[in-house]
Structure formats: C-alpha cells, structure tokens
Specification:
CATH architecture: Up-down Bundle
Radius of gyration: 17 Å
Helix content: over 70%
Order of helices and strands: HHH
Distance between the termini: 57 Å
Number of strands: 0
Strand content: under 5%
Oligomer: single chain
Largest sheet: none
Amino acid sequence: MPNIKSAKKRVLVTEKKTDRNKAVKSEMKTAVKKYLAVVAGGDKAAAEASLKETYSIIDGAVAKGVIKKNTAANKKSKLAKKLNAMA
C-alpha cells in the first residue's frame, strides 16, 4: 500500500478506471453473444438490426479507449462475415 498521497490517489483512480473498462468490455461481449444467437436463429432482418446495435457498442468502447481501433475493425469484420454467410 502506498504511503505518498499522490500514489494513494493513483490507486483509487486506477481502480475506478478498471471498473469502468470491465463494464464496457462486458457490455461489448454480451452484445456480441446476443448477435451470434440471433444469427444462429436464422432471421436475417433481426440479425441486421442486432448487428447495428453491436457496432454501436463496439464503437463506444473504442471512443472510451477500452479497445483499439483496429481491434474493433477486426471484430466488426468478423460479425459482418457471419451475417453475409447467412445469405
């Protein structure tokens, strides 16, 4: 445990950021799982709507700095491939 005041503050700030990042990542993973479940269901219209929501959540994670831009692009590309494979 740190003794210096600024170091104590950094610990608190880091914990707060870690909690936020975990929440954002969890939300993103949940959205991806929901999308994959819709794709497995076979309803293309519902899958397109779900894909749009999932993209939005992934872009939000990028904006908050939780994941990098290229990581998001790779995730979005894989999700789009799954949708295109339905056709």
